[in-house]
Fold Hint domain-containing protein.
Amino acid sequence: MKLSSFSRPQADTTDGSETAGDSPRIGIIAGTRVATTIGWRPIEEVKPGDRVLTFDGGLQEVARVEHSKLWSKAKACPRKQWPLSVPVEALGNQTPMQLLPEQPVMLESDAAEDIFGDPFTLMAAEALEGFRGIRRELPDASTEIVTLYFETEQVVFANIGALFLCPADTSLAAGGDEGTSETYSLLPIERATDLTRIIAEDEARRRDMAYADEN
């Protein structure tokens, strides 16, 4: 999957400075904590050169950090850009958090292993709407988005157990070839929505069976 295919604000943010533009599609909402060499830190405090714990690559150095506002236009933020509110434990997170609709999220499930042969599936967060209590939420105008860039795409740990994909800094790729950064595959939105429905149905069946056994 090439994250460059997603919309992002145009900005010179090599020094981690803040910019304001249209709603970014890839990034993590400020306040979310990521695992670093000095413990769990709010993502807005991470700087280029810091090392962050990743799912496949261990500790990886952050190449670039981009700061943007969720929505900077005078008109109201359209609902399709509203972040998703994630309750505690819905995605393994130990505190509530918010996700941008098109932020790639890694979800682990038995259903994915049965269908795809791999329990871990990467999907856009919008496919999770209605799943485990996840819902859209009208954003605050001051909401800040932070995008961490690595030498290659990396899945990072957030709020203890959640897993988010961060893009590669393609300016570091040899010859500027963005294809060299492609590492992970994103499940198409239709299949992702179907998968979350299957997982939800399976969880409901298990709850019903547990209730029946108790009674």
